[in-house]
């Protein structure tokens, strides 16, 4: 039967101990040349001499695929300084597939499938090139482990555990060979593949143990509220959003400017303060919680207290349900809520905090005052229309406007009290 393997699939659990036959997947001959030979893999040992691959060996391919994905991701990030995340399409584009098995069950053919309609020449984010450099990074790490009993300095330390899982399902006299294929040949590696023998696997396990015992700090960014500052220790506590407990953050020694910035955003009551983004170095524990953030180099306000208060108010409004103001009243329309949330940063900058009021028809009204004029801005329909009104006591009648929703124009109206849209 045809078989397809992706980096997120679990063939072992689906197929138990039955055997996967080595027939090519339907349509494999039509795949373009740039899909061929993503990584060379060969399994050796008595079990792999018969036709068909033992299903319990699929765990090796799964471990390999997961590691290659993470290495491809790290390669892309290393090549794009300043970026914290890969492009949204990266996960879907990394589509590693088992399309056939050669020489009995010894040589599974793994290709990186390029989806229909995707032109590698138009890959402006350089995602595919980063993915194709991952196998070489893996081979280099295995060679360094075999020869020098360590991993390269450029190898991400958090992936050492995945590296040590390669070959874990194999027996004493079984091994897996991994190499970088030649561009013109799907199966043949260039240069010679690294053989992950039982001795190499033991070395990898020891390296993993060493890294777990003394893990290296990595660049880390946290968001939360500063609750306490210790001027003597030049450190502060951060209540991280969505995580229990506090994280102790240690400033770079002698950085008095950063210390003053921390004091400016301190929550004296432990709660009321702007949300800040803090950057430093940390080792995460098993739960993902960061206990200590070392060498903090940046503290940046991402949400002011005014914006947080408005967000809380909007959350109260969106919690309303149909019938909240009589049988015919409606909950706030989702599109209206989304549009309102988009203007909150601008509303937080107003000299006078605005009043946000729900309407029975599902719309939202924002009220404020400028120079004695009462301002009303309504976000209506599905967040696609707005109504602006200036009620100046000195004017004969209010100045009104009905228009398509425009976040910048709405905020400018509430700032200046003038309709210019």
What does this structure look like?
The protein has 421 residues and is of the alpha+beta class. The protein has ten helices and 17 strands. A five-stranded mixed β-barrel has the order 8-9-10-12-11. Strands 13-14-15-16-17 form a five-stranded antiparallel beta sheet. It has a three-stranded antiparallel beta sheet with strand order 2-6-7. Helix 2 crosses helix 4 (127-148), helix 8 packs antiparallel against helix 9 and helix 9 (334-347) crosses helix 10 (407-416). The longest helix has 22 residues, at 58-79. The N and C termini lie far apart (64 Å). Residues 1-35 have low confidence and may be disordered.
Write down the Rg.
29 Å
Largest sheet: 5 strands, mixed, barrel
Number of strands: 17
Count of DSSP-assigned helices: 10
Strand order across the largest sheet:
8-9-10-12-11
What is the percentage of strand-forming residues? Answer: 25-35%
The helix-strand sequence is: HEEEHHEEHHEEHEEEHEEHHEEEEEH
Q: Unreliable runs, pLDDT <50, ≥5 residues?
A: 1-35
Map the helices and strands:
Layout (H helix, E strand, L loop, with lengths): L10 H5 L3 E2 L19 E5 L8 E2 L3 H22 L10 H4 L2 E7 L4 E6 L14 H22 L11 H5 L10 E5 L14 E3 L1 H16 L4 E13 L4 E6 L6 E5 L4 H9 L10 E10 L5 E14 L1 H14 L15 H14 L7 E4 L5 E7 L2 E8 L4 E7 L7 E6 L2 H10 L5
Helix pairs in contact: 2-4, 8-9, 9-10
